[in-house]
Amino acid sequence: MSSTLSALRAKAEKDPKHRFRALARLLDHELLTEAFHRLKRKASPGIDGVTHALYAENLVENLVDLEERLKQGRYRARSVKRQWIPKADGRKLRPLGIPVLEDKIVQQAVKMILESIWEADFHDESVGYRPGRGARQSSLDLRETLQSGTYRWIVEADIRSFFDHMDHDWLVRMLEERIADRRLIALIVKWLKAGVLEEGRVLHPATGTPQGGVISPILANIYLHFVQDHWIKRVVARHCRGKVHFMRYADDSVVCFEHEEDARTYLRALPKRLGKFALQLADEKSALVSFERWNPDQSGRFTFLGFDFHWARSCKHKHYAYVKRVTNKEKFRASLLAFKEWTKRSRSVKLPDLLVVLRRKLRGYWNYYGVRGNSRMLAKYDLKAKQILFKWLNRRSQRRSMTWTQFGERLKHWDLPPPRVVEKPVQASLANGSKPA
């Protein structure tokens, strides 16, 4: 099946205007099997309660039946279970849609087909939910681009409740730019129109796609490819006097301009552009930032991919400036809040089992936020996390089990990964010809 998907990709790259037919035929037993094995095994079940392990007990028979229903048009999308989970700030909640397992399998298979086609069309500036592209590496790429000092004005923009307001008619028109298979389009529309089960009631939203669905990220990227990426590359950049560079992760984007007037023109045009496609700019999360390297002490900062970007003076060369990334304060607090909630829930778990998960959590945090110049925030997180751990491990029983000093002695034997910068050094800014601030 990999060769079939590779052939789709090759055809899409060779002919940017080709519209693919008979794609629904690819949803056979082989592709469905591969899709099943790509799903997360421990993901929450949908409204039918069927788990990955339960479905796997009779996998061949279940997938044969699913394939037959797809071929005969008897497949029906089930309602999506909605759960509310905390946002990054820890104060608000966002909806998470959980489809039933069979819907996840078919969505995963369709996602693989769509990726094979649309990866040839997506711009490199789109970095979210795409194979082979990581957020931390993208933050480094953006930092290196800004380091030249060419881009002095930054527009950071976020779309209000994007996944809830994607217009179905527009999305179908966008899909039809590349897909001429009505069966596959109809299958996607079934998921868009499937009800959402919440508090015993089934709701049928007229717009949007459930955030958390397997198919949602690729649909979101296709939608914003036309709404934002293509527009910036083909229209905005051509009408600007200076250079333009942008990067988008899902509905969060930054656009970098050489000249202030170009940035202000784009910011004025953006709400109208979004409105055409039933979207709205989140004003509280959008701003125009002066990003001037020649006066780093007065330069602004912006937030993207969990980091605050700003100009800073080099410790070794006070007359030189560089773009620094530090953990965003809201993301920092949200991470600590999530760590606190996990510790509270897990404090009664046997210590060896708890330490296994704890090491994995800390290692994951260092692997993402361990960028050059962020050591201070890493050390701060390490201290706060240990204080939380000390507090809740002391509540495993009614009596206090250890002092802070005793806790420190135990830490020496727990083999916890220390905070560290994992990002490899890049060519020094001074060697790249950076100029003094």
Task: Tell me what you see in this structure.
This protein is an alpha+beta fold and 437 residues long. The chain is built from 15 helices and 11 strands. The chain has helices at residues 2-14, 29-38, 52-56, 59-72, 101-118, 135-146, 162-165, 168-175, 182-193, 216-236, 260-276, 329-346, 351-369, 375-393, 404-414, and strands at residues 80-86, 93-98, 153-158, 196-198, 201-203, 244-249, 252-257, 287-290, 301-304, 307-313, 321-327. The strands form 3 sheets. Strands 2-1-4-5 form a 4-stranded mixed sheet, with no helix packed on it. A 4-stranded antiparallel sheet has the order 6-7-3-8, sandwiched between helices. The chain has a 3-stranded antiparallel sheet with strand order 9-10-11. β6 and β7 (252-257) form a beta hairpin. The radius of gyration is 24 Å and the shape is globular. Residues 428-437 have low confidence and may be disordered.
Short description:
By secondary structure, the protein is an alpha+beta fold.
| Low-confidence spans | 428-437
Structural class: alpha+beta
Report helical residue fraction.
40-55%
| SSE order | HHHHEEHHEHHHEEHEEHEEEEHHHH
Outline the biggest β-sheet: 4 strands, mixed
First-to-last CA distance: 55 Å
Tally of helical runs: 15
Report the mean per-residue pLDDT as an integer.
91
Strand content: 5-15%
